[in-house]
Amino acid sequence: MGNYYQIAKEKYAGIGVDTEEAIAKLQEAAISIHCWQGDDIGGFEPAREMTGGIQATGNYPGKARNPEELMADFEKAISLIPGKHRINLHGSYAIFEGESAKRDALEPKHFAKWVEFAKKHNLGIDFNPTFFAHHMVKDNLTLSSPDEETRAYWVRHGIACRQVAAAIAKELDDHVVYNVWIPDGFKDIPADRLGPRMRLKESLDEIFAEELEGVIDCVESKLFGIGLESYTVGSNEFYLTYTASRPGVYNLLDNGHYHPTEQASDKIPSLLTEFDKIPLHVTRPVRWDSDHVVLLADEVKDIAAEIVRCDALDKVLVGLDFFDASINRVAAWVVGTRNMQKALLIALLTPWEELKGYQDHADFTDLMVKQETLKTYPFGAVWEEFCARNNVPEDNEWLSIVKKYEEDVLLKRG
Fold this sequence. Notes:
- By secondary structure, the chain is α/β, with parallel strands linked by helices.
- It has a single domain (29-364), classed as Divalent-metal-dependent TIM barrel enzymes (TIM Barrel, Alpha-Beta Barrel).
- It contains 14 helices and 10 strands.
- The chain has a 5-stranded parallel sheet. It has a 3-stranded parallel sheet with strand order 1-2-3.
- The longest helix is centred in the middle third of the chain and has 25 residues, at 148-172.
C-alpha cells in the first residue's frame, strides 16, 4: 500500500496538490452521523406510532430495539469509519430510568447516557426536537397550529430540547447543532398560506428567545412530504427570510428538500456571502425526499467541492440524514459516511486555485480539460492511506466484518 500511496502522492504533487495536507484536513472534518438509521426512527418512548410523513421502509433483520443495542451498533459502525465523528440525536431518543417524561418536559438527565457514550468514544453530539410521530400532531400541524393548546405544547417541546442541547454543549465543552424541522402543511390547496407561517414565526421566536451558549440554532425547510403535498409551512423562502433577520439562527440545507432540478450545492456559496455557518444534511433523494443511503454520486461530490473550494470546512457543518430498513443498518451507516468523506477527499485533492485562474482568464478550454483529467487521478490510493492511518479496513474488507457482526449479534435479536 505504501508504494501505491507514494505513486499517487507524486502524481498529485505534479499538479500542485499536497496529499498530506489533504489527509490532515480530512482528519479534522467531523461528520455528524444520525442515530436513527439504526432503529428505523423508532426512538425509546414508551408508546410510539409513526405519523407525520416519516417512515423507513423494509424489514431487514436485526434493528436495534433499545438504547444498549443502538449504541452497540453505532459503536461497531464508527469502528469502521476513519476520521472524527459526531452523533446526531432526536428528542425521541431520551433514555428513561424509571418514570418517563412527556416531550414538553424532557430534561438533560434523560440524555445523560448519550453524553457518557459520547465521552467514551470522543464524539460530538448534535440534537433535534421531535415534531412528529405523536398524538399532539393535530391535522399535520405543530408549531403552526391554529389550536393554541397544540401550538403551545410544541413550543414547550422546542424550548425543553434546546435546554437539553445547551446542557450537552456545556458537558462536552463543544458546540451542539440544534435543528428544528416540522412536518406542518396541507395535503390539498389551502385557503390561507400566510396565517400558518405567521404562527410558525411566533413559535420560533419563542423557542429561540433565550440566548444559550454552545448551541447553534437552525431551521430546516422542505419542499413537500407525504400528506402535505400542496403546501409546506416551513418552506425554503420562509426559513431563508427568517434566518436572515434573526442573527444566530441558521438555515439548514438538506439536499433532499428541494425541487429535483435544484442543487443544494449551488446554495452553499450563496449563503456563505452572508452567513458564517451553514448546517447541512446530506442524503440521497430518489424522485423525492426518500432519504436513501448516500452514494458517491455527482451531487454529493458537488456539495463537497463547494465546501472545500469556498474554504468552508469550518463553516459548513456536515451531517447525514438517511434511513433504509431494507439493508444491513450498520453497513448503511458505514457506506454512507465513508462516501461523504470520499467526496470531501476528492475536493481536497483538487487544485482549485489553478482552476479558478482558468475561469478568471476565460480559459474555458483549459478548465474543461483539466477538470476531466482530474476524474481519473488516483484518489483511491490516498483514501486507502487515510483508512490505514486511522486503523480501519479498506473498502473491500469492512463488509465481511459487518456480516460477522450480523451473524453473531443482529440475527440473534429475533
